[in-house]
Every structure is written in C-alpha cells, then in structure tokens.
Specification:
This protein has 112 residues and is mainly alpha-helical. Helices cover 30% and strands 5% of the residues. The chain is built from 3 helices and 2 strands; from the N terminus they run βααβα. A two-stranded antiparallel ribbon has the order 1-2. The radius of gyration is 12 Å and the shape is globular. The two termini are 14 Å apart.
C-alpha cells in the first residue's frame, strides 16, 4: 500500500522510481528494469508489472543482467530494498517516468 496509497491499482513512474531506487542498483540497471517492466511505455505500472520490476531487481542484485526472459521467473531471493539509502542528486536520471530518486519505505516484501 505504500507505493499505491490511494489503491488505484497503478504506481506512477516517480513513485516506482523512488521505491526501486532503494535497491542500490546502478542507474543504468534501473533504467533497463523500467524499460522491461513498462514495456508499453505508459509511464506507470499496474501491480503485475510492478511485480515484474521487483523480480528483475532481485535478479539484478544476484548478478543477472535484466532481460525480458527473467521477468516471468521467480528469483532465488527477494529484492533487497534499503529504506535508509538516499540517492544523491547525481544518481537521478531526470527521464520522465523512469527510475530516478529514492524514498524511505517500510514496505514488507511481497512476491507476485
């Protein structure tokens, strides 16, 4: 509910970027994950596509490069999201709807 407080069923690009940015992954990796999860280029993710992004984060954290084939496979571990990590302004992309900054989160891991 933290990433969808109004229960709309969608997560906008900025909110998703802030949340996924706590993963500690490099900006280019987050950008690749976003491009796979938001394959339609809509600038937001429904819960299913957000699950894809989380799976890809977990795969990337285990050393696998994000790719569409991994999107449907369960990772070996849950994604590690550091709620204390704050991204520096130089780590933001400025691309509308793509992963950018970080935000504090107390969300519990969920597998989709």
């Amino acid at each position: 509910r933290h990433v969808d407080p109004n229960n709309t069923g969608y997560i906008d690009g900025a909110t998703a970027a802030n949340f996924l940015g706590t993963s500690g992954l490099p900006q280019d990796t987050l950008h690749a994950i976003w491009n796979i999860a938001d394959a339609g280029g809509q600038g937001h993710l429904d819960m299913q596509r957000f699950g894809v992004a989380l799976r890809l984060v977990a795969w990337a954290q285990s050393g696998e490069a994000p790719n569409p084939q991994l999107a449907d496979h369960e990772p070996r571990m849950l994604p590690e999201l550091n709620s204390q990590r704050q991204r520096a302004p130089s780590e933001t992309s400025g691309l509308g709807g793509s992963p950018a900054a970080s935000v504090t989160s107390e969300m519990q891991p969920v597998i989709f």
